[in-house]
Design brief:
This protein has 473 residues and is an alpha+beta fold. It has twelve helices and 18 strands. The longest helix has 24 residues. The two termini are 20 Å apart.
Length: 473
C-alpha cells in the first residue's frame, strides 16, 4: 500500500480535480463572513493519494503553528521515535557541571535525586559550571512577536520549565517574585529581576535588559500573577537548580558558563521521555519552545555539528524535507523557525496535505500523535430533533495554527463511509495581516478583538468544511 501512495501522490498533487459543490463552499464562507479568496484547501485520499477536493490549493499562506508538523515529522524520521534528550550532572574534583542536551521537558524534579545523593555523601562543591554549548542560545524565537509573551521565550540547549516564569505579586506590585513552577516544585528564579515603577506607565510588563532578565512592572492590580518569558534560559536554569540544591541541603556557588571537562565523572543522567511522547505533547499543547528545541536537535544530527543559528537549523531541516518528501512541489515554501511563530513563513494547502500523506509513510505512528479535534456533525442545537446531545462527533486528528488573520488546520479525517482522508485547510486575510504587522507594538501581547472574532469565524468555516467532506467522501 505504501508503494501505491508514493506512486500516485506525485501525479495526483499535480493534476487536481475541481472541488465539488462550489456553491456549498461559497455558502459556508458567506455564513462566516469570509470571502472565497481567503480560503484554501486540499483533500487527499490517504490510501491512494487521489485529490478529492481543492480550492486555491497553491495559494501561499502563513502556516502559524501548522509549521510544527514539518518539524515533528522530520525529527521522528531523522532521530527516531525512541530518541531521548539527555541532561547530565558531572563532577571533576570539587567542580559540579550541569550539561544541557536539549530536553524541552526538563524540570527541577528531574535533577533532585542527584542532590539527595550529594547530600548523603557530604560532597563539597567549590565551583558550579553550566554547559549549554550543544547549540547557540537565542533570547527569543521571533523578534517581531511581543517581547513579554511566554510563547516567545529564549531558546537554548539548557532549558527549564518551558523557559517561562510565574510572576506573583501583592500590594500592587510592591511585593513581587518570579518563580520557576513545575508539578513538583516552586523555586525562586534568581535570574529574573523585577522592578516596580513608582509612576504610571502605559503597560504592565516592560522588558528592560537581559542577563539577568530585568522587567519593569507598573499599573498592576492589588494582587495577581502572569507568565513571562525567560530570555537567558541557560543562566536561569542554572540559578533555579542552585535553589533546588539549597532546598536539598547542598550549597552551590553562583553558576558560571563553561564546558564539561573530558575527564569529569558522571554523577546523574536524566533522559527525557521518548521523542514520540515529546512530539505528542508539543503538538497537543502547541508549545513553541519544545518545537524549536526538537528542531535544533534534528538539525544537529543532520549536520553532525551544532547549528550556528536558528535560521541555519531551519534551513538544514527543510533541505532534508525537500529531499525526503520529493513528491511535493516545495516552491515558495519558507519557514523562519521550527514552531511557526512568524508572519514571514509561507506554505500552501497542497504542500501541507502532501506532507501529511507522506508523513504516514515516514512516521507510521503519526496519527496517534496528532491531537484529537472535537467536531460535531451539527452546530450546537442542530442535532436530531434539536437535541445537541444526539449530534455525532467526527473522527478528526489534526494540528491547528492560529495567528491574527491567519488560521490553519492540517490532519486526518475519517469520513462516514470509513474512508481516511488527509487534508489541509487555511484561512488567511493577507491585507489585514499586513496592516496588523505594520502597527504591531511588541510591548502589547493581547490580540485585538477584531482579530479574535475573525479567528472564531475561521474555525466555523473549518467545521463546515469537515462536515461536508465527511458526508461527501
Amino acid at each position: 500500500m505504501r508503494s501505491i501512495v508514493l506512486g500516485v501522490l506525485a501525479l495526483s498533487l499535480a493534476c487536481a480535480r475541481p472541488a465539488p459543490a462550489a456553491d456549498g463552499l461559497a455558502a459556508l464562507a458567506f455564513a462566516q463572513g469570509m470571502g472565497l479568496d481567503q480560503v484554501g484547501f486540499v483533500v487527499l485520499d490517504a490510501e491512494d493519494g487521489q485529490v478529492l477536493a481543492e480550492h486555491q490549493g497553491d495559494r501561499g499562506v502563513v502556516p502559524a503553528s501548522v509549521a510544527k508538523l514539518p518539524t515533528a515529522i522530520a525529527a521522528l524520521a531523522v532521530l527516531g521515535a525512541d530518541h531521548r534528550f539527555e541532561t547530565e550532572l558531572a563532577m571533576q574534583g570539587t567542580t559540579l557541571v550541569l550539561v544541557g542536551g536539549g530536553d524541552p521537558l526538563l524540570t527541577p524534579e528531574d535533577l533532585r535525586p542527584a542532590f539527595r545523593r550529594l547530600k548523603e555523601r557530604g560532597a563539597r562543591i567549590e565551583r558550579f559550571v553550566y554547559d549549554a554549548s550543544a547549540w547557540p542560545e537565542m533570547t527569543e524565537i521571533d523578534p517581531a512577536q511581543p517581547e513579554n509573551s511566554s510563547y516567545n521565550p529564549g531558546i537554548g540547549a539548557l532549558a527549564l520549565d518551558f523557559n517561562r516564569v510565574l510572576v506573583d505579586w501583592k500590594a500592587g506590585g510592591r511585593e513581587a517574585s518570579a518563580l520557576a513552577v513545575s508539578d513538583g516544585a516552586r523555586l525562586r528564579a534568581d535570574g529574573i529581576r523585577l522592578l516596580v515603577s513608582p509612576a504610571p506607565v502605559p503597560l504592565p510588563y516592560r522588558f528592560l535588559s537581559e542577563g539577568p532578565d530585568r522587567w519593569l512592572l507598573a499599573n498592576l492590580p492589588t494582587a495577581g500573577r502572569a507568565w513571562l518569558p525567560v530570555k537567558r534560559p541557560a543562566l536561569n536554569a542554572a540559578l533555579v537548580v542552585r535553589r533546588l540544591a539549597e532546598r536539598e541541603g547542598v550549597s552551590l556557588p553562583m553558576p558560571v558558563p563553561g564546558l564539561r571537562p573530558a575527564d569529569a565523572r558522571r554523577l546523574h543522567l536524566h533522559e527525557s521521555p521518548r521523542l514520540a511522547e515529546v512530539v505528542r505533547r508539543l503538538l497537543e499543547h502547541s508549545n513553541n519552545m519544545a518545537a524549536e528545541m526538537v528542531g535544533l536537535g534534528t538539525a544537529a544530527r543532520l549536520r553532525g555539528a551544532p547549528p550556528t543559528s536558528l535560521a541555519d537549523s531551519v534551513t538544514t531541516v527543510d533541505s532534508w524535507l525537500r529531499t525526503a518528501v520529493a513528491e511535493v512541489d516545495w516552491s515558495g515554501f519558507a519557514r523562519a523557525n521550527h514552531s511557526g511563530l512568524s508572519p514571514t513563513s509561507r506554505t500552501t494547502p497542497r504542500q501541507m496535505a502532501g506532507l501529511m500523506l507522506k508523513g504516514l509513510v515516514l512516521v507510521p505512528e503519526l496519527p496517534g500523535m496528532l491531537p484529537a479535534r472535537e467536531v460535531t456533525e451539527a452546530e450546537p442545537g442542530e442535532g436530531a430533533e434539536g437535541d445537541p446531545k444526539t449530534a455525532t462527533t467526527l473522527a478528526v486528528r489534526a494540528k491547528t495554527g492560529t495567528m491574527a488573520y491567519a488560521r490553519g488546520l492540517v490532519g486526518l479525517l475519517w469520513t462516514h463511509s470509513g474512508r481516511r482522508v488527509a487534508f489541509a485547510v487555511f484561512t488567511y486575510d493577507e491585507g489585514r495581516r499586513i496592516a496588523f504587522d505594520a502597527t504591531l507594538d511588541r510591548r502589547i501581547p493581547e490580540m485585538p478583538a477584531a482579530a479574535t472574532a475573525w479567528i472564531r469565524h475561521a474555525r466555523g468555516l473549518e467545521r463546515g468544511l469537515l462536515r461536508s467532506w465527511a458526508a461527501a467522501y
